[in-house]
Design brief:
Layout: H1 2-5, E1 9-12, E2 15-18, E3 22-23, H2 39-51, E4 56-58, H3 67-76, E5 84-89, E6 91-93, E7 99-101, H4 105-119, E8 124-130, H5 144-155, E9 159-165, H6 169-178, E10 181-185, H7 196-204, E11 208-209, H8 224-232, H9 237-248, H10 261-268, H11 277-284
Parallel strand pairs: 3-4, 4-5, 5-8, 8-9, 9-10, 10-11
Antiparallel strand pairs: 1-2, 6-7
The structure holds NADP nicotinamide-adenine-dinucleotide phosphate.
Length: 288
């Protein structure tokens, strides 16, 4: 697809990914629990994403649980050589859909094996250890014990690269003393910019920053400024929000989530959007 040629790539460990990827969380059922309402549509979204040039897919075995990984496998296996599937561990799901921290050696090891089995892989490209001191936002606390277990699984050859998610700068520093960290996945978007300094710091160290909720998450971003810029550029607010992230820093990799083919197509156009200096200034004001 021509729009994709303009989207630069970034090196995630020894793998090269296009900066506009896809987040698979929306493919599970309501509340990221159970099967999707339309299984065939979920397969179609994944296949079109890859056909459009996406080679970076974010997932977790606790989406569903298991469901999202199984759909990825059904849609895309055997996987293309350039496809990088990034997963995350440290939680499990209760029977009621609740999110339960799962950070013991046994639970982390089980999670890596669950991902391998459900994705149909012999080795996981990137595994993010997700901070669970507070489920909703990063909170301080040592990550040494669980990260040491993940680093052991890496040495056993089950995991190629390690990243961190929902973490503070201090936890990233602690993590880098234990093993190489190739990416950080935290909550960030046009309206939620708490990680601005961290992004710049990681860019200087060639570590990828992968914002989750790039479109605002379950309640997508709503802003008059965003609407106004989108109207002037003859595009959609969501495409502008993604284009802004691509411009924000060259180490930002995007994983917008959608269960809709129409939204996927819309989001893919972000790579070709050019924002002027004055539009960037206007958009910067949204967070203030
Ligand atoms: N590490 C973590 O703790 C963590 C937490 C959350 C998410 N994640 C990862 O980050 C990825 C992205 O996050 P996310 O999917 O939760 O949030 P998101 O990408 O910010 O937004 C997804 C929401 O926006 C809607 N949407 C997508 N494209 C749209 C468009 N063009 N127009 C209007 N609405 C649109 C989706 O609904 P439709 O399905 O109707 O399009 C969905 O409700 C996830 O897939 C997951 O892989 C990680």
């Amino acid at each position: 697809m021509s729009t994709f040629n303009r989207s630069a790539t970034f090196k995630l460990g020894n793998r090269v990914v296009r900066r506009l990827g896809y987040g698979a969380m929306q493919l599970a059922g309501r509340g990221v629990f159970g099967p999707p309402k339309d299984h065939d549509a979920a397969l179609a979204v994944l296949r079109e994403a890859v056909a459009s040039g996406v080679n970076h897919i974010d997932t977790a075995d606790f989406y569903g649980p298991h469901v999202t990984n199984q759909i990825i496998r059904e849609a895309l296996a055997p996987y293309g050589d350039d496809l990088v599937i990034v997963t995350k561990i440290s939680a499990r799901r209760g029977a009621d859909g609740s999110w339960i921290p799962a950070l013991s050696r046994e639970e982390l090891t089980q999670a890596v094996h669950d991902n391998l089995r459900n994705l149909g892989l012999d080795v996981l490209d990137v595994v993010n250890l997700r901070g669970m001191f507070n489920v909703h936002h990063p909170a301080e606390g040592s990550i040494e014990a669980p990260l040491t277990v993940l680093a052991e699984l890496q040495r056993q050859g089950l995991v190629r690269h390690i990243g961190l998610s929902n973490v503070t700068p201090a936890q990233i520093e602690e993590g880098r003393r234990i093993c190489e960290i190739v990416c950080v996945q935290n909550y960030y978007n046009l309206a939620h910019r708490g990680d601005d300094a961290l992004i710049d710091d990681l860019a200087r160290q060639s570590i990828a920053y992968v914002p989750f909720f790039p479109l605002g998450g379950f309640t997508p971003l709503q802003s008059d400024t965003l609407n106004s810029v989108a109207t002037r550029l003859d595009t959609t607010p969501m495409a502008v929000a993604l284009a802004w992230l691509l411009r924000r820093s060259s180490n930002i990799l995007l994983i917008p989530g959608t269960s809709s083919l129409a939204h996927l197509r819309e989001n893919m156009t972000a790579a070709a959007l050019t924002l002027s200096a004055s539009e960037l200034r206007e958009l910067d004001e949204i967070a203030h």
